[in-house]
Automatic annotation (TrEMBL):
Organism of provenance: Eiseniibacteriota bacterium
Designated name of the protein: MBL fold metallo-hydrolase
Cofactor: Zn(2+)
Assigned keywords, A-Z: Hydrolase, Metal-binding, Zinc
Domain Metallo-beta-lactamase, residue spans: 14-191
Length: 214
């Protein structure tokens, strides 16, 4: 078995929203629904999936704003790392700072924890706490697939100039939690194209080996 993987490129910031589904049970998780929740709902219904989980890699507006609408349409328990609760509590304030409309947070927040395994049907994802872009930033690992939110991008990293951000923390998270994974692990980021751990460990201009030697 393996998790089926659907990616949607949505909204003015070209966010990646992921729908992960067990191919046997059809149980699913939605990861980071920020903009255009109707597109996510359409995929879930077209594929005949049963949403059990709504997972956020972090609580920035562009990754959370659509989660409540998805929840009201197709269900799912909402999960977030507790260190990002202050960001969730200021969701509409975050949006207003960038000219976006108010948004409602999902109901009943369940706490993610480092090392936790969350089942999706007959499969599961492991939670990796990777602070730096935000205090409660996490990645989700399943086999050779990593859903990395805004921790690591193809050729870049998440910005650290927002409240709670820290370049030192982000660099440490990437080096100790992500670059220790196999080079063949496929990275699915919150924005932009997919990449691999091996490519970023070597060539990432901010945290890769060549950057450290420059």
């Amino acid at each position: 078995m393996a998790l089926a993987h659907h990616v949607l490129h949505l909204g003015p910031l070209d966010n990646n929203t992921y729908v992960l589904a067990c191919t046997v049970t059809r149980e699913a998780a939605v990861v980071d629904a920020g903009f255009e929740p109707e597109a996510v709902i359409e995929v879930v219904r077209r594929q005949g999936l049963e949403v059990r989980l709504l997972l956020n890699t972090h609580a920035h507006y562009d990754h959370v704003a659509g989660m409540r609408e998805v929840q009201e349409a197709v269900g799912g328990d909402y999960w977030l790392h507790p260190a990002d609760r202050p960001l969730l509590d200021r969701l509409s304030e975050q949006g207003a700072a960038f000219g976006f409309p108010p948004a409602r947070a999902p109901e009943t927040v369940r706490d993610l924890a480092d090392g936790q395994r969350i089942p999706i049907g007959g499969e599961s994802v492991e939670v990796l706490h990777t602070p730096g872009h935000s205090p409660g930033g996490v990645c989700f690992l399943s086999g050779d697939s990593l859903w990395a939110g805004d921790t690591l991008f193809a050729g870049s990293i998440g910005r650290t100039d927002l409240p709670g951000g820290s370049f030192a923390e982000l660099e440490r998270s990437i080096h100790t939690r992500l670059f220790t994974l196999g080079d063949g692990v496929r990275v699915y980021p919150g924005h932009g194209p997919a990449t691999t751990i091996g490519r970023e460990r070597l060539d990432n201009p901010f945290v890769g080996e060549r950057a450290r030697l420059a």
